[in-house]
């Protein structure tokens, strides 16, 4: 890896809930300019890991670094400013605001002002095929459009790393394919890193050349998609649960 490359690193992250080790000494890295797939059976700890990275939860031990900067003292409110954005599994949009206003809020949060903020917002609306819906209130959108707006908002914050926790959940195959195309374009044009969690391995593998596999809170395999798919530990994790 190039030294100048920006990178998200988790080192020995652990988090327990009332005796349940949700994340257990998890170590992995996700570089910019690429999509890193994060897979694992239900309950593996994937969402908890995301919540630790974004500081929604505080780790019992271990740390997260972004390009070498320890994020241990950064608050959840300041994580986006530090360069990490996410979409939520449960949608958290400003329901009473328009599609445009929702994305504009993120552009303002990224430090843009005036016409420049408007231009960033419009760029993301176009990237996610929301231009025609700019004046529509968020609460009037279809499910698929709401999911796209969520991701557009996260990207308008101009992150170094974007965390997507099951962005295609609830989408039909055509919507999922369309989302994959849009994320590929983001990957290729923006140079940001994407950590992509999804159950749909076909979807993840279309975007990602590197897969990280979690089971019982910890890393059990990582590598090219075809490698991890053939890994006995991975097959056992999916079958033996
Ligand atoms: P995944 O996203 O891979 O399906 P999660 O991170 O949601 O897995 O959950 C990992 C484990 O931690 C599960 O056993 C889950 O029940 C538990 N867990 C997650 N969040 C909480 C919480 N807030 N309180 C208690 N247990 C939790
Ligand atoms: Mg989850």
Automatic annotation (TrEMBL):
One of its GO terms (molecular function) is L-phenylalanine transmembrane transporter activity. It is found in: Cell membrane. One of its GO terms (biological process) is L-isoleucine import across plasma membrane. Keywords: ATP-binding, Cell membrane, Membrane, Nucleotide-binding, Transmembrane, Transmembrane helix, Transport. Residues 8-241 form the ABC transporter domain. It comes from the Bacteria. GO terms for cellular component: plasma membrane. This is Branched-chain amino acid ABC transporter ATP-binding protein/permease.
């Amino acid at each position: 890896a190039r030294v100048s490359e920006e990178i998200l690193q988790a080192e020995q992250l652990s988090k327990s809930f009332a005796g349940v080790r949700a994340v257990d000494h998890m170590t992995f890295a996700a570089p910019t300019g690429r999509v890193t797939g994060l897979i694992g059976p239900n309950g593996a700890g994937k969402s908890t890991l995301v919540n630790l990275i974004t500081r929604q939860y505080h780790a019992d031990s271990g740390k997260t670094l972004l390009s070498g900067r320890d994020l241990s003292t950064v608050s959840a409110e300041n994580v986006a400013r530090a360069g990490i954005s996410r979409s939520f599994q449960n949608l958290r949009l400003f329901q009473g605001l328009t599609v445009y206003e929702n994305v504009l809020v993120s552009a303002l949060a990224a430090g843009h002002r005036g016409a420049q903020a408007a231009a960033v917002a419009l760029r993301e609306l176009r990237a996610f095929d929301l231009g025609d819906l700019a004046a529509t209130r968020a609460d009037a959108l279809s499910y698929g459009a709401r999911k796209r707006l969520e991701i557009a908002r996260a990207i308008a914050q101009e992150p170094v790393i974007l965390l997507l926790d099951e962005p295609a959940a609830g989408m039909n195959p055509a919507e999922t394919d369309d989302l994959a195309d849009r994320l590929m374009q983001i990957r290729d044009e923006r140079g940001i890193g994407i950590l992509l969690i999804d159950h749909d391995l076909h979807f993840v593998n279309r975007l990602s050349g590197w897969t990280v596999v979690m089971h019982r809170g910890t890393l059990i395999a990582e590598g090219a998609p075809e490698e991890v798919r053939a890994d006995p530990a991975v097959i056992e994790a999916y079958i033996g649960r």
